[in-house]
Amino acid sequence: MKVENYDVVIVGSGVAGLICALTLPINFKIILVTKKKLKDSNSYLAQGGISVCRGKEDKEDFIEDTLIAGHYKNNRKAVEILVDESEKAIKTLIEKGVEFTGDEKGLFYTKEGGHRKYRILYCKDQTGKYIMESLIEKI
What we know:
Blueprint: E1 8-11, H1 15-23, E2 30-33, H2 42-45, E3 50-51, H3 59-69, H4 76-95, E4 102-103, E5 106-107, E6 120-121, H5 127-138
Parallel strand pairs: 1-2
Antiparallel strand pairs: 3-6, 4-5
Helix pairs in contact: 1-5, 3-4
């Protein structure tokens, strides 16, 4: 049996796994474990957009919309973390080369998934595919 040594083993090749790999120090020897190919993930198949908090004044509404969409079965603390970290997550994706739909005036936002406000960013109508391809290119 062939034995290999790595500093980090990442199990999963969706957005979370790829972002993890891309944020680790460049001198780390990393292995990314996937099903068959990097594109074999739910992240790649996701068509909808990504919700993002649109400033401090949007925080409570975003939390409430998310709780409503989850029929109040969501963990409120987890929802609060998701909302609090959403702007940073989008910034990270943009820094990694993801091009959300927009124009010279800025990004386009839409409503979906139970959100009452325009806070969904998207990449054409295949958000997961475009995010994954941008991250795979960086990998």
